Amino acid sequence: MDKIIVANIVDVELNDIYPCEIHISDGYIEEVIPIATTDPNDVDLDYEGILLPGFIDAHTHIESTMLIPSNYAKAVIPHGTTSVISDIHEMANISGLKGINFMIENGKEVPFDFFYAAPSCVPPTNFETSGAIIDSELVNILLKLNDFVSLGEMMNFPAVLAGDEEVLKKIEYAKKLNMPIDGHGPLLTGEKLKKYIDADIYTDHESSLFDEAIEKKKLGMKIMVREGSAVKNFDDLLNKNDRQIFWANEEDAKNLSRDDYNLLLKNPIFDFLVSDDKNPIDILNGHLNLLIKRLIDTDVFPIEAIKMVTLNPSKHYNLDVGVIAAGKKANFVLIDNFDNFNILKTFVGGEIVYEDGNVLFDSEDVEFENTFNVSEKSPEDFDVKIDLKEGKIKALIMKVMDKSLITDKTIKELEVKDHIIQENIDRDILKIAVVNRYGEDTVTNGFVKGFKITDGALASSIAHDCHNIIVVGTNKHDMAKAVNEIIENQGGLAVVSRRNDIKESLELPIAGLMCNDDVSTLALKLKNLQNIVKLLGCEFNSPFMTLSFLSLLVIPSIKISDKGLFDSEEFRFTDIVQEVISEDEENA
Amino acid sequence: MDKIIVANIVDVELNDIYPCEIHISDGYIEEVIPIATTDPNDVDLDYEGILLPGFIDAHTHIESTMLIPSNYAKAVIPHGTTSVISDIHEMANISGLKGINFMIENGKEVPFDFFYAAPSCVPPTNFETSGAIIDSELVNILLKLNDFVSLGEMMNFPAVLAGDEEVLKKIEYAKKLNMPIDGHGPLLTGEKLKKYIDADIYTDHESSLFDEAIEKKKLGMKIMVREGSAVKNFDDLLNKNDRQIFWANEEDAKNLSRDDYNLLLKNPIFDFLVSDDKNPIDILNGHLNLLIKRLIDTDVFPIEAIKMVTLNPSKHYNLDVGVIAAGKKANFVLIDNFDNFNILKTFVGGEIVYEDGNVLFDSEDVEFENTFNVSEKSPEDFDVKIDLKEGKIKALIMKVMDKSLITDKTIKELEVKDHIIQENIDRDILKIAVVNRYGEDTVTNGFVKGFKITDGALASSIAHDCHNIIVVGTNKHDMAKAVNEIIENQGGLAVVSRRNDIKESLELPIAGLMCNDDVSTLALKLKNLQNIVKLLGCEFNSPFMTLSFLSLLVIPSIKISDKGLFDSEEFRFTDIVQEVISEDEENA
Hints:
Two copies of one chain form a homodimer.
Chain A: E1 3-11, E2 16-25, E3 28-34, E4 50-53, E5 55-60, H1 69-76, E6 81-87, H2 89-107, E7 113-118, H3 136-144, E8 148-151, H4 157-162, H5 165-176, H6 190-198, E9 203-204, H7 210-218, E10 222-226, H8 234-238, H9 243-247, H10 250-255, H11 258-265, E11 272-274, H12 280-285, H13 288-297, H14 302-307, H15 311-316, E12 332-335, E13 343-348, E14 351-355, E15 358-359, E16 391-399, E17 408-417, E18 420-421, E19 429-435, E20 443-449, E21 457-460, E22 469-473, H16 476-488, E23 492-497, E24 502-507, H17 519-535, H18 543-548, E25 558-561, E26 564-567, E27 572-573, E28 577-583
């Protein structure tokens, strides 16, 4: 035995708090011996406060933070997170196994428990170009690695419903190895939802509506409540006072005594609290700790809230972390009390890795090969051409909303001048384009509503999930300039406004997704870019992250890939031009 | 604790034999408690005889037995082998990850410890066509799987010596994970050998000459003495009475006392006893047990001989088997005594899996997709065409020797008739061809000496390591017939003699390498084919296995791939026609 820690622990299995001796050997808990006492104040504690199991983020994509794994660990350890289950499909889409190996190996450099979900959809669909393919046989191999604990979110739900052979094989392989399969079923309901769950897909983190989550829950799914940077579902799923009435059978609820009813209200309905995609600004401010506190503030039992990031993921994914019990890893969080929920210290493998505001380990810079195979773009690449020479058309427009991955369809009139469909800045109808980065040198164009910038363009090499280059702009010149800036930087974010003489970028040379900066530096750089976008007129909370999801074809209802404008409800390509209203006589 | 076994054990760590209690829990040894006694006959043993650790074959390719892994286990368990380290590069070359997954999963169906070496050379060289590629990133992933214990034989030694980037990456990844790297350096010597070893390649199983093995040993390599079906190195490496004189410094040896000198002779010089490639006939007769016995018969200390298949591989590959000690798996072999070395019982995970001549577990039939993408061949595909119409040429001939993978070069005169170079059956110069099976539909032709058949043809879809179809014949008609028989069967061996009205085949529908037969059935079928080949005039010990290695480009000195005749010393393609001796006037 290496050491003994005496502390008040939260026992998430017994729903109790008591003083005990924790015996630790080789980083693991050997024994937990409760200290019998009539007066808890008599116990000579090593640490004042309450010791909880380290928190687990059960669904996230590390790459979305733009931090390399070792710096990610440094960023979340101060907030009490000691483990994540990360579906590293962003890197997998760009660099395949090389990217996966990079993530796993970099993560091993620091005291933090990285678990991985084997990417199930690389590429996500057949309607886009990725840098690599992870087929069913490779999924089978990954699932056998100790680092992997589940088959990652099965985003291509149309393929599951259609019984696609490769997709079913991946599911079959996971089942054979007794691995949980993660779901992704935004707005999926009724028979389709049942069929999806029948494939043994038992978690979902895409519920954005309360009723949606309840329907899934009743069918046996475990619901991950997501609170990311671009998408925030916490309020809609957990902040309802009357939520138990929906959840319990209404009749039963009526028959409950007032006391029992109030007790019921103190239990959270759903199963996990997860981040999914978080930017460095948000991570700097807090992580799962903030969500637990918010839940406690709504009068949920503290231990029940804590279970959502400890016992629940530990049990579902069969992890050796998440519980203070013999045989588990000695990962702890010391808080002052449930009301303030301040993180005082964090332990990994029995060692203190964070205290007094300082992370007690270092990370090192890494390199990664250039993953961009694309030539410089000209403004004309962003022209939306049409046979019609002059006139008006009805165009299909992608309507973007803040804090949601889901887009709306809308049809608007646009002018055509000299065979080119014109954006309309006054009506907030801007141009959007995706530039292939994997050697095909193609550009697809469309129109978008919601960004409200009145000048310039913003672009990103983070463009889910294939990570071609995506750009939104008020004019083709700024769009080309922003895209070329990213190509030159071998990846990153950029905002350009020639009129205001602005060209700012955040370089992400590691696969176009990440850089070596620490979370504070990165947050500053991102804040700078976001402020510029804000000054240009955009009101979105996290404009670059919102932009990055406009190419994610597996989310309703209209998106754009490097191959074309895509109808995510019909799961097929669609056209910008819906109707020609008036033709110039020349073209008649 | 599940059970206690009381027996006389061989302690390979302490070089001792003593009675003890073995405490077993969950298949593993919890404790080994020696029984203090003045009279060993007083101890109440559970089993008469001597209990050894289960044997480990540290270098083999399961596929070469033509048995699926579960049947392989059933075949070797009666001989005391309870573990193998298998480089499954045959399946990997044909079906990549699908093949690897198939092997791993089928092996898990039975109580046997399969360990794997990650295939380092798939394809072995760039001069041949395989069905799959295992690149450095995939090697990195495989090495992280628990099933894998080493980087498999680095056969492409020219690429190691040339500093090929992909090859060095594979080595680098293995070193990073502290995984041993297996060598393959036939006849490698001097500076080249030193450079090869400098890449941290520390085993070799390709030594066919005593001096060759000693040179490698002195440079720090561990020598695996191979006794397979096609290649037998035991006699040359271990059966020398004066071997210690070579091994020890000659001067030192002279100064040794007679007793010390004799003692030295009782220690084996080399490190492992391995099978590499064994056919089912040989496996039916025995396995590593026969080699240990042969070594004991040469007066080597029995425990030293046993270490070569237990302690030595266990330590080198960091295995949880191979020693009767706490923490190791409870795999044992019960023998009667060292002189007879009869295997009485075999234990895996503390359970008896073989006794009284019976294997106590079953295996099930499996299926695998058809891996042949090749059209029917015509006799003319096997014509060796030349510009010359009539005359004589000097042709480069592959000279094949029994019990060796190494071929010789020889130049012989051959006649040309109507633009076709003629075989010469009287002088044992036959035709050899390789037919691409991976969709390219090509045939390469050459000439071969050594088979001595006077009629017919023999063909095989086992053709190392890419496993295209290889055929040797006295005439093009039989060659085409034999090849077409294999294509129709979706793999296997075939022998054809139209003159004798013979067409016999052994179907190997699992990737063209294996079938569902058990070892006895398979041995009978193979024996039948071998007898026919023998009757046709061939004197080789294992003609189909010898045939199968004629396409293994990484062995000297001349081989043939689906892309051409290959000079394995110069590592480049070469030509059949070395010189035109006499030309017909028509062509002058």
